[in-house]
Amino acid sequence: MNYYLQGNFKIYLSLIFHQLQFNLLYFKEISKKKNSTPNFFNYIFL
User: Would you give the end-to-end CA distance of the chain in angstroms?
Assistant: First the structure.
């Protein structure tokens, strides 16, 4: 794997990681507010 691809891959992974973290936080906030467990998949694909 050349340097350019390696750099892009790291960026891609970090973007995915941050998106997952955001979705997790959002899900926690939503379930706190609604005081119930909403369908998790509604919030994965925001």
Answer: 32
State mean pLDDT over 6-20: 86
- pLDDT above 70 covers what percent of the chain? 65
**6 token code pair:** 């390696």
pLDDT of residue 1: 56
Cβ-proximal residues to 44 (8 Å cutoff; 6+ apart), any chain: 23
Residues 6 or more apart from 31 whose CB is under 8 A from it? 37, 38
Q: What DSSP string describes 5-26?
A: HHHHHHHHHHHHHHHHHHHHHH
In the chain, where the domains are located: 3-44
Neighbours of 31 (CB within 10 A): 14
